[in-house]
Amino acid sequence: MSCGEPHETDCSEVLDHLYEFLDREMPDSDCTKFETHFEECSPCLEKYGLEQAVKKLVKRCCGHDDVPSDLRAKVMGRIELIRAGEPVPASDVHTTTSRDVPATGQDVPATAQE
User: Fold this and answer.
1) pLDDT for res 97
2) d(Cα 33, Cα 92) in Å, to the nearest integer?
3) Which of 62-67's residues contact partners 24+ apart within 8 Å by CB, and which partners?
């Protein structure tokens, strides 16, 4: 996405690193560049506001649940693959249904599901 206007920091760079900005996982100098960009670019500011609202909603609705460390590691691994432009192996992709997840939040072995 690009607004078509020239900016010191390109719209695509801002949108590619939006969650790093939202989570304050970037150097202050980069945060300042992004803030300047949002002042100049209303489409990116709108996208930032939307993502910020979604993040707050998720935190409010799901922020009290503990995430199993193995699930967190899997998700972070996939995010890193996507950021690096590498394909996510199909064998790693698992769709869970409510019957697959016990009260502890851990995966149920296939034999226990039957």
Assistant:
1) 43
2) 36
3) 65/105, 66/105, 67/105
